[in-house]
């Protein structure tokens, strides 16, 4: 996961408003005394558990397109396909399909793994209990309506999450396709297709293809953008679900790199991961660092929605630079960052809802939750 990249030059308020749109609150220039030296990157551990096998999920049956076989390519050219070519197996369909750009409104949600405290697979009943716990966190300032997951096929994650969401009510699932290795990408993609065509397909809020692939160096921009177009073609064209946005989640630095522009171009939405704690930023400067990253990346989005895919602050762990991990600091970060996103109507996923004790990589890795566990109380108040 990405540690906050502290930028030494802020954007002027007028420029911010012209890029992001009316109604947003511009961030003032940060005084020089508040600008911290850049801290070397610290890599967070993956939220995906590689010790659990990923099942091989067969692709759902192909379906014909809900139009007459004329597709408009991304470059504007028009191509006529014969009926037998209107198939998901046809690469022309995946790569040259009609472009849909579904929008995204404001929401507040959480990232959630599919593992128990020991790292095993959550059952559907576990999911029901977890989502009910999340609903209990709601207050007059926040309604938590979306959960983002990192895999779909491993541990039956998407099926269990969707069934639990229907049972609990008022919750949708943002499906994450784990993109490496390729066999896992195929299984996760196929499972998304199966669930979209199933009775709970209307509870899928969006799809994220890959998690910090560019930041971790596991995929290059050309391959990742191809995966995104592939999933868009399956969901929006083959299955006609033009209201489901498809994108990716990655760190600020690789998304700002012009060499990766193809990923932004392919995506309907971009999710940024940003952790001032892992950048070594002291808590009283964390919001300004986060805002600086948000506005700078927003300038590259060309009007596409920008979602906070991950941010948070651990309640315990090693000090990183000037960043101290305590419950009081985690509470302060929520009240500054989450409440700023609420007031400016920026959609976000907090990382995360429960501590994950199975992870390696240090104590902080396991203490990013709002609560210690499904049966434990929340660590701090979530009101503004």
Judged by helices, strands and strand pairing, the structural class is alpha/beta
Termini, distance in Å?
26 Å
CATH overall fold name: TIM Barrel
Strand order of the largest sheet: 9-8-7-6-5-4-3-10
Whole-number tally of structural domains? 1
CATH architecture field? Alpha-Beta Barrel
Question: Which blocks of ≥5 consecutive residues have pLDDT under 50?
Answer: 1-41, 64-68
Task: Present the secondary structure layout.
Elements: H1 13-20, E1 70-72, E2 78-80, H2 91-95, E3 108-111, H3 124-136, E4 144-148, H4 157-168, E5 172-177, H5 182-196, E6 204-211, H6 213-216, H7 221-238, E7 246-251, H8 252-256, H9 261-266, E8 269-273, H10 283-298, E9 306-310, H11 327-344, E10 348-350, H12 363-366
Parallel strand pairs: 3-4, 3-10, 4-5, 5-6, 6-7, 7-8, 8-9
Antiparallel strand pairs: 1-2
Helix pairs in contact: 3-4, 10-11
GO cellular component, one term: extracellular region
Pfam family, one: Glyco_hydro_17
Protein name: glucan endo-1,3-beta-D-glucosidase
Please describe the structure with a list of short key phrases separated by commas or semicolons.
10 strands, 384 residues, alpha/beta, 12 helices, 12% strand, TIM Barrel, disordered N terminus
